[in-house]
UniProtKB/TrEMBL annotation:
It comes from Anopheles culicifacies. It comes from the Eukaryota. PANTHER family: GENERAL ODORANT-BINDING PROTEIN 99A-RELATED (PTHR11857:SF46), ODORANT BINDING PROTEIN-RELATED (PTHR11857). This is Uncharacterized protein. Transmembrane segments: none annotated.
Amino acid sequence: MVCAVDRMVMLLLLVGSRLSYSAKSNVILQSFDDMVLECAELMSITPFKLTALRSGMLVKDAETMCLLRCVGVTGRFWSDYTGLRKEILARYFLADAADILNVNRTQSCLNDLPALGLDPEHCCSLALESFMCFYHNYGNLRRDRVFVPLDYLQLQHVTARCMEVHQITMEHLMSLSEEEMDSNDNLHCLVRCIGIKTGIYSDRDGVNMDLIYAQYGEGYCETEFKSNAQKCIKQKSEGTYGNACKRAYHLLYKCFENVRNVITEYELHDSEDD
């Protein structure tokens, strides 16, 4: 009788839940305005000045410059060590389809800026000037939310969570040869898990090329990165893999094994920390 009751409770729980449940992702979507508000609060910007900034009145004082730097750091389009990621900042602007010279104008403006220095105040100034090149030349600032690449700590959290779920230790991961990786079911599911949690992959749509380049493509030519991956994905999509994990492994890892990817990004940082 007790077993029958237990089965009935379980059945009710299953019926009451969504059978087509999809895993919660760690994807971050933020608008430019969201990031301005967040940074203004963190930096104690006065309401009066914030209102002026949001209306487009950008005064080039130290407070405004460092606020824009904070926005850049939050949106992952600015780093004091590597400078501007143009392709990330461009995502916050909507270009006029008829304006075929916007990219050239923006690049010309960026070329006139001084080199990146180590002085914090200089970084704030350069972050603002880089943004202004886009603001005046690239297009209109978007109001909707866009994908924000995860930083290293966020990626580490996602990877550690997926490793725990699929029972893979760091030592085991680092010890696998290429042949062992190709045949390890748990590793295949790890790759799929990271892809789903970071929003760069789904079983239905496969690899999201724009998002994977935003997340892992820093330092690579965008055209070459995407072209090489597309050719590989087209070829491997025709294969039969037997399960979703193995398919994800081939599309999301094997097609990106020569560039920064879901596994090497984690391994490289771990090795550097050692």
